[in-house]
Design a protein that fits this description.
Elements lengths: L1 H18 L1 E11 L5 E10 L4 E10 L2 E2 L3 E18 L3 E18 L8 E16 L5 E11 L3 E13 L1
Antiparallel strand pairs: 1-2, 1-9, 2-3, 3-5, 4-5, 5-6, 6-7, 7-8, 8-9
Amino acid sequence: MKKVLLITLFSTLFCSALTAQIRVGGMLGTGTDIDRWGLGINAEYLFNEKMGVAPKLFFYFPEDTGVGKISFWELNADFHYYFLSEDVVSVYGLAGLNFLFGKINYDNDLFLDDRSDSDVGLNLGVGANFFVGKVIPFAELKYVAGGADQAVIFLGVKFPIAE
């Protein structure tokens, strides 16, 4: 029985690897709570035509407050479910985890220690890919529920590297 389960598991993984698509790219975005723009990188691994996972690393532009410099970055791990796929556009729902990291570097003349903090949140949202050749522009709107409740919008491009 164990051999049958192992053979079935490896066959499923091998077949899904044959049909998998991998896309990587960049993005521009902003959050309503942090209220700053930033840049990031993204990837998407599609298991099949309906489901995939998408990690994202995003850096908000730092802000100099006069007292110190505040910076934020976040790491996202989202699950995508494609509920509409046409020739030109595909629309997906997303759910996942958000890890937000913030740091303030105080000016040296204040003699204050630098501080940092992090929060974990849940992502819920929608996105769309637009197929216009080798480059795939995308837009994504999501809400992050957690320590830093905010709506986030990303605009970017993805490049297929494996199909």
